[in-house]
C-alpha cells in the first residue's frame, strides 16, 4: 500500500513538473510581450507599465489581417485534399488485400524519415520549374505531398484494426468496394479522421519554412510568416515578436481546445497502433 501511494505521488509530481516545464515558455512570451517596444527584457520580470497595445501594434505591423486570410486559404487547400487521399490510401493499405500493399506501405514509412529541411533545396527548383513560385500553390501542393506519409500511416493504423466481419456482412448485402468504404468504414473512422484533421490544421497553420523560402510576397504566406516583419536591419523588436507569436498561436490553441475530446478519443481507440 505504501509503495503504491509513493508511486502515485511520484507520478503526480512528474506531471506537475512536466506541466510547469511546458507552461513557463508561454508565460515568458506573454510577460515579454508586455514590455515597451524596442526593449530587451530579461527573465520573467513583470513590467511596471504593461503595454497591452503591443498586441494591436504587432497585428498591424505584420499585416496579420491579410495573413489570416492567406492562411485560411492554404488550410482549405491542404487539409481536405490530404484527408481524402489519406483515408482512401489508408483503407486500401489497411483493409483491402491488394497485391504489393506491404511494399507501398514501406515506401510511406520511409517518407516519414524525410525532414523538410533536407528536401527544401530540390523542392525549390521543382516549384520554380512548375512556375508556382510566389503563389499559394507553392505551399499547398508540397504540403499535401509532405503530409501524406504520416497521414496514410495514421489512417492505415485505424483501418487495419477493424474486424473483417463488418466488410463480409456488407458484401453479403451486395455492397461494392466503394459502398463498403463510404457507407461502412468512413463513419467508423470519424474519430481518426477528425484527429488527423486537427494535426494537419496545426501543422499547416504554423508552417514557416516553406512560406519563407517559396513565397516572396508576405501577403501570400501563412500566419507564421508574419514573424519576419519584426526583423529589422539592425535588430529584432523582441516584445512585438513575442506579441506576434502569441497572436499566431491563438487560433491553433482555440481549435485544439474545442476539439481536444475528439483528439483524445482517437488516441484511446488505438488509431496509431498497428
TrEMBL record:
Signal peptide: none
Localisation per UniProt entry: Cell membrane
Pfam families noted in UniProt: BPD_transp_1
Entry keywords, A to Z: Cell membrane, Membrane, Transmembrane, Transmembrane helix, Transport
Membrane topology: Multi-pass membrane protein
TM helices/strands, residue ranges: 12-34, 67-91, 103-125, 137-155, 188-215, 238-259
Keyword check for Membrane: yes
Repeat as UniProt keyword: no
Major place of residence: membrane
UniProt xrefs under InterPro entries: MetI-like, MetI-like_sf
Domain ABC transmembrane type-1: start-end pairs: 68-259
Family the UniProt entry places it in: Belongs to the binding-protein-dependent transport system permease family.
Protein name: Carbohydrate ABC transporter permease
Annotated organism of origin: Streptomyces millisiae
Amino acid at each position: 500500500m505504501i509503495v503504491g501511494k509513493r508511486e502515485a505521488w511520484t507520478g503526480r509530481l512528474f506531471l506537475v513538473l512536466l506541466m510547469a516545464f511546458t507552461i513557463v515558455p508561454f508565460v515568458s512570451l506573454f510577460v515579454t510581450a508586455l514590455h515597451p517596444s524596442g526593449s530587451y527584457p530579461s527573465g520573467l520580470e513583470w513590467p511596471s507599465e504593461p503595454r497591452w497595445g503591443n498586441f494591436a501594434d504587432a497585428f498591424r505591423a505584420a499585416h496579420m489581417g491579410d495573413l489570416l486570410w492567406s492562411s485560411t486559404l492554404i488550410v482549405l487547400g491542404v487539409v481536405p485534399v490530404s484527408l481524402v487521399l489519406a483515408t482512401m490510401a489508408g483503407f486500401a493499405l489497411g483493409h483491402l488485400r491488394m497485391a504489393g500493399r506491404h511494399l507501398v506501405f514501406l515506401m510511406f514509412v520511409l517518407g516519414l524519415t524525410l525532414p523538410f529541411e533536407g528536401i527544401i533545396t530540390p523542392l525549390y527548383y521543382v516549384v520554380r520549374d512548375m512556375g508556382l513560385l510566389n503563389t499559394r500553390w507553392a505551399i499547398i501542393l508540397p504540403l499535401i505531398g509532405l503530409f501524406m506519409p504520416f497521414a496514410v500511416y495514421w489512417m492505415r493504423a485505424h483501418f487495419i484494426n477493424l474486424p473483417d466481419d463488418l466488410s463480409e456482412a456488407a458484401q453479403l448485402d451486395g455492397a461494392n468496394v466503394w459502398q463498403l468504404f463510404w457507407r461502412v468504414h468512413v463513419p467508423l473512422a470519424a474519430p481518426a479522421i477528425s484527429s488527423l484533421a486537427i494535426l494537419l490544421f496545426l501543422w499547416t497553420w504554423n508552417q514557416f519554412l516553406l512560406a519563407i523560402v517559396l513565397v516572396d510576397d508576405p501577403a501570400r504566406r501563412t500566419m507564421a510568416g508574419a514573424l519576419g516583419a519584426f526583423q529589422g536591419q539592425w535588430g529584432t523588436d523582441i516584445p512585438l515578436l513575442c506579441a506576434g507569436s502569441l497572436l499566431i498561436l491563438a487560433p491553433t490553441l482555440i481549435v485544439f481546445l474545442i476539439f481536444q475530446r475528439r483528439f483524445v478519443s482517437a488516441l484511446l481507440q488505438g488509431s496509431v497502433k498497428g
